[in-house]
């Protein structure tokens, strides 16, 4: 199993994709107050990417772990979580704001709500299967 630092898809590509999406959203809302929320989320993702690259550089050098490296690991983990949560909430706010004027945003919100309802029922099913497996043994 890959660790957090070596998992490039989850640790580098997802924040880069969200960063690109946030930049597009900033362009569309350049005169709206939501652009500041997008900028905070983008800055968290940039901090996460730069700290991840620093950790990769340190691990390639083979130098021993220092206190600064532990601080960078904490910074990387916390900004990754905060940045992605804020980015997902920003996408939701972007769609809700556009749903007031655009039909395509209403359709996207409807599809997203349908997917969330289906995921809820799948999670309930998995939970029931897990409880049933505990009782069988």
Q: Layout of helices and strands, plus pairs?
A:
Elements: H1 8-28, H2 34-61, H3 67-99, H4 103-136
Helix pairs in contact: 1-2, 1-3, 2-3, 3-4
Strand coverage percent:
under 5%
The biggest beta sheet is recorded as:
none
Total helix count? 4
Query: SSE order, as H and E?
Result: HHHH
First-residue to last-residue Cα separation: 28 Å
User: What gross morphology would you assign?
Assistant: flat
Helix percent band: over 70%
- Detail the poorly predicted runs: none
Radius of gyration in whole Å, from Cα? Answer: 19 Å
What does this structure look like?
- Helices cover 85% and strands 0% of the residues.
- The protein is mainly alpha-helical and 137 residues long.
- The relative contact order is 0.10.
- The mean pLDDT is 82.
List keywords for this structure.
mainly alpha, 137 residues
Short description:
By secondary structure, this protein is mostly helical. Helices cover 85% and strands 0% of the residues. It has helices spanning 8-28, 34-61, 67-99, 103-136.
């Amino acid at each position: 199993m890959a660790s957090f630092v070596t998992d490039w898809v989850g640790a580098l590509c997802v924040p880069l994709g969200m960063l690109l999406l946030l930049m597009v959203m900033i362009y569309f809302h350049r005169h709206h107050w939501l652009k500041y929320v997008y900028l905070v989320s983008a800055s968290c993702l940039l901090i996460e990417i730069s700290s991840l690259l620093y950790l990769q550089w340190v691990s390639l050098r083979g130098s021993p772990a220092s206190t600064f490296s532990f601080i960078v690991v904490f910074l990387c983990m916390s900004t990754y979580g905060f940045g992605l949560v804020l980015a997902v909430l920003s996408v939701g706010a972007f769609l809700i704001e556009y749903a007031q004027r655009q039909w395509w945003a209403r359709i996207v919100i409807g599809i997203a709500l349908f997917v969330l309802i289906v995921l809820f029922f799948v999670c309930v099913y998995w939970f029931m299967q897990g409880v049933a497996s505990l009782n069988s043994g």
